[in-house]
Design goal:
Blueprint (H helix, E strand, L loop, with lengths): L16 H6 L4 E5 L2 E4 L4 E4 L2 H4 L8 H13 L11 H10 L7 E7 L2 H18 L7 E5 L8 H6 L3 H4 L8 E4 L5 H4 L15 H9 L4 E6 L15 H11 L3 E5 L13 H4 L6 E4 L11 E6 H9 L18 H16 L2 H4 L3 H11 L7 E7 L2 E6 L10 H10 L2 E2 L1 E3 L2 E4 L7 H18 L1
Parallel strand pairs: 3-13, 5-6, 5-7, 7-8, 8-9
Antiparallel strand pairs: 1-2, 2-3, 4-10, 9-10, 11-12, 12-15, 14-15
Helix pairs in contact: 3-13, 4-13, 5-12, 15-17, 16-17
Bound molecules: 4'-deoxy-4'-aminopyridoxal-5'-phosphate.
Amino acid sequence: MKRYENMDAFWMPFTPNRAFKASPRIIERTEGVFCYTDDGREILDATAGLWCVNAGHVRPEIAEAIGRQALELDYTSPFGFGHDIGFEFAERLIQHTPGDLNRVFFANSGSEAVESALKIALAYQASRGKSGKYKLIGREMAYHGVNFGGISVGGLTPNRKGFGPLLPVDHLPHTLDLERNAFSRGLPEHGLEKADALEALIRFHDAATIAAVIVEPVSGAGGVILPPAGYLKRLREICDRHDILLIFDEVITGWGRLGSPFAAVEFDVVPDMIVSAKGITNGIVPLGAVFVADPIHDCILDNAPEGAVEFYHGYTYSANPVACAAGLATLDIYEGESLLTRAGGDIGRYWEDALHSLRDIEQVVDVRNYGLIGAVQFSDAAGSGKPVGGAFQAGCYNNGVMIRAMGNIIAFSPPLTIEKAHIDRLVGAIRMTASELF
Ligand code: PMP
């Protein structure tokens, strides 16, 4: 197939543009758990795109639903007008959310959904007369998208620096602890006390100034950092004790990644809001959402003047009908194929054993996994001074597998439809790449 000759106009996101364009990696076609390159190679997609194509690529049911919707009702303003498919989709979504998270605020991406959640938190505090509670607590190594609120609560230094003073926030310590928890299977045993750092932050700032705490139940882009057993429950207890909202950013952990519809369900901790995106439409059409607890929604509505807009926030494409159609078709697949719990079964155990078999590679200092997410961390010395992840990603790509790289960590989050033979292929490609690089 012809490769597009002039690549200059597209300024690619989170990409070293000049290096990429000197040596491009072009995907021409996708299907199931595979991508196909322009030079005809089959690549196993061990990252489900960007942690999003949970039901696998090119599902005709979703494509057809998108086409049908675009031919029937393509767009209408969501400000003061409605359409059936928006209400139907919201109703279907909340069948999967825990507790009283029964209200859905739609956005178009994870980043927008994060901003929406943070603003809902502040709007809620103000609506009950506590506008002094405006500070936000995030966590080191967290990724909450790239907008100003998200990078403020986010904890990845390169994404924050150079963008000015940001919002008034503070950060919990991350929970990665290789000394005590290396090669844990599932949740790490040690580190529950790291949740107590929240008590210290609250003492420092005063609960009367804090609106909400936001965490990814499992940090994805930070390198697949798992919460120590009991950690999320303890955060919930501390937030309750101090009248602070708890938000879970489940953009990655939602929709079956950990073996339940949400991490909140898997770990039996109900936050006040869940942020969702990615797998909500199987990654095919951009869509984000915030699942909001009834009392928060009700408080904001109850305290608004009769007949007035209650929340000055929303997007041209909130509940875009075509995105809702994609989402409904996606839910049909998740439910029909029991994909939301598949990672918790036999395939998840196979995944765990397969990844942990890599521990015999000399440069590997940790293997982490839960459900169908995982990471391998290499020693700082593995790349002779340079983080080895980038070279490892390139090597795996040459060896027929797409993975993610962050520093000395490589991460995987395959489509939930993955089979054992594909997992063997991933592990084989990692071994082969390690033998080439080390
Ligand atoms: N939150 C988390 C936890 C994410 O992983 C991501 C994306 N990787 C986002 C938010 C941002 O989502 P988007 O790229 O759709 O804006």
